[in-house]
TrEMBL record:
It is found in: Membrane. InterPro entries: Diacylglyc_glucosyltr_N, Glyco_trans_28_C, Glycosyltransf_28_UgtP. Pfam families: Glyco_tran_28_C (PF04101), MGDG_synth (PF06925). Belongs to the glycosyltransferase 28 family. This is UDP-N-acetylglucosamine:LPS N-acetylglucosamine transferase. Residues 207-297 form the Glycosyl transferase family 28 C-terminal domain. Residues 20-186 form the Diacylglycerol glucosyltransferase N-terminal domain. Its main location: membrane. One of its GO terms (molecular function) is hexosyltransferase activity. Keywords: Glycosyltransferase, Transferase. GO terms for biological process: glycolipid biosynthetic process. GO terms for cellular component: membrane. Coiled coil: none annotated.
Amino acid sequence: MTIKSTKILFLPFLNIPSGHHQVADSLMYEIELNEPRIKCEKAEILSYSYGKLEALVSGIYLKWIHLFPHLYNWIYQQSVYKNIEQHKKFRLYELLFLAQMKQLINEKQPDCVICTHALPSYMLNVMKEKGIINIPVINVYTDFFIHRFWGTNHIDFHFVSSPNMKELLEKKGIPEERIWFTGIPVHHEIKPDRKPVMKHHSSCLSIMVTGGNLGVGAMEDLLNNIKTSGKIKFYVLCGKNNLLYRKLQRLNNTNIIPLKYITCRKEMNELYDSIDGILTKPGGVTISECLRKRKPTFIYHALPGQEVINLDQLQQLGVVFYLSDWRDIESQLFTFFDNNEHLVEMNSSLESYHRQLVDKRISELIQQIL
């Protein structure tokens, strides 16, 4: 007798390497590793609907953020984050994607759909509201906030990453039992570390610097401002920014060590274990990995839109430090590690955050739903 397999469809958006894809890929790998009868597939609705137009949209999106950051941030705030408790209809997106989403679901015939981006979540929420589908749909949020584009009321389960998100959903009328505080999923090879942040007794610190795997952001400007004394080794993840990697190599500075894009999560876990702290921007997955490893996290820059809001939410949680002044980065880092009050506050905030997380892996929760 053949046992019927269960099919889960994952829906990120755009094909640029982003947290939406990282989260989907991590969950797909872990689910299939632990439960062979479950088959996972990933689809991207823009390329499915309009083919090569997706590459053009992705390119414009990245250039827009880089060239007009303030305009992007204003439009983002106005369109999806203002009055977030109020319901909003996005008719244009329904016109562009609703029929294609129906076709995709009919074609793939999944037993469950997991959304790691707001656009597919919104479309499926509309479809469930109209009674077009009745399979379970799960929102796995990849930031530390929920904006108005996410479908919520007719989505079956919500995997959130902050208490404020849970509170917002409850205000929208979502029953508590449909909201799970899971944190943003990370790859299972990023092993949890339960040791508290300790006062640093060594004369040298090891700090990882990252700006996202596309190399987008102000990382290069930051590095130009760092005056290295030899007391800190900066391990710079250049992502796919080969130009930055070559520039840093040419500097021939023994205190600034450039690293190419690390695809192996086990290798990434070892790097986390070897460092004292992280200089980064507030991307959801990167911060979630830092939280999992309980590493002191210092924010040097936030991209417009999602990251600006993430930074605000993370500061409220007390789990990051924002370095707005780049004039003496080394001194600020040493001051943190030598200040017992800072260490106590960070350990308390990290402990509070971890205490609220559900005591199950996300892949287990998904299997429970199925």
